[in-house]
Amino acid sequence: MARVAAIDCGTNSIRLLVADVIGDALSDVHREMRIVRLGQDVDATGRLAPEAVERTRAALADYAAIVRRAGAQRVRMVATSATRDAANREAFFTMVRQTLDADADVITGAEEARLSFTGAVSDLDPADGPFVVVDVGGGSTEVVLGERDGPRVNLTAARSVNVGCVRITERHLHSDPATPEEVAAAQRFATQTLREAFAEVPVDKARTWVGVAGTVTTLSAIAQQLPAYDPERIHLSRLSRERVDSTAEHLLASTHQQRSGNPAIHPGRVDVIVGGALIVRVLAEELHTRAGITELVVSEHDILDGIALGLA
Question: Contact 183/171 with Cβ under 8 angstroms?
């Protein structure tokens, strides 16, 4: 048994998993997520905002203390879309090194997809494959096709494209609620960008669609009308294509104040969940057309779990 710590620093959130690796399975010791919006305005400016870096530093300092107290033997932090795009990312790396006493690995979209796939399918029956795993993040979306053979995963293809809940919101969704014109522009952007992934990933071979990360898990919580965000009820829940569409329509018509009053939505996601829902709706339409898939399987296990398993 090995105790490991995985940190995933994305465009919208920074997350920590401390877990014991037992064979090819994980036993959680501590799992936490904080919204830091590291990618604030990076799509427009090309730089990480100082206040966003400070929010991330404060969260990372707390995580470093948790990791030390837990006695993790190995630690890995990965940084994804926001830092890949930023001109001043070296200052961010220096901050991470000083705060965590470890370097941040800026991973490629392909590795991000592989790690997400590994975590997402860890609790699924291999007979339900091939799987198409989709990770809707803040700045990018990863689409990966593959199968699971025991503890091993065999990937067929993967592609990361630059459409995520923060990026699409900052570009297109400015009104409260979004206007029909804004929604149409955002949908065109999502459709065109995601088709770049579908051109390289043969999703028509998939039998099961698995969605991971905060946008998808929050959609499940909303669709189930949960009184609070409940990981146990969200993990491995299933949403029909019709439920995805109706939930997205509900969110598109909602105001910021209405979403703020929904206890299933984390306060840090209130302003970007509309854009995320629109991306998932486009995915549902495309995967139904291309692969005949009619439902989304929602997984609470994702890139964090993949990083932790890799550390073993």
Answer: no
